[in-house]
Amino acid sequence: MTDIQGKVRLVEETWVDCLNERLIEQFVDSHSRDITMHDPTFQKPAVGRQVLKRWITNLFDMFPDYKIEKKHIFGQGDWICLECVESGTLTGAIKGTNGKETPPTGKSFTSNEVVVCRCTDKIEEVRLYYDVLGLMAQLGLGPSGKA
Fold this sequence. Notes:
Helices cover 30% and strands 37% of the residues.
């Protein structure tokens, strides 16, 4: 895929439509086999479709009502930038990489996020940018910001 409009469509269909419609297999298949994903909560980049599938499955387990709303999308060359708002209610446990689980709080969040993707025929790399501390505070799991 060489045209920018095709890459924009790929990212929007994958990161908005597939997520909102819970099309996990289609979401995963839109990424390359050796997809590299950067997330501010990861200690190091995640690599591979299996890791991506586990990440998205965990997201939906934690937030069954998860939604993502596109605000803007644009690109240049192989890079596409999606600005969005995501929301959900924490009704499932958070599964930590250390094996510990944090119980659900039943609280909801709304957060601005930027998803930056490098694309060829598939999405090769994803970089997520969002306010982790603000998200955790909304979920009742971090500082409230009150003095």
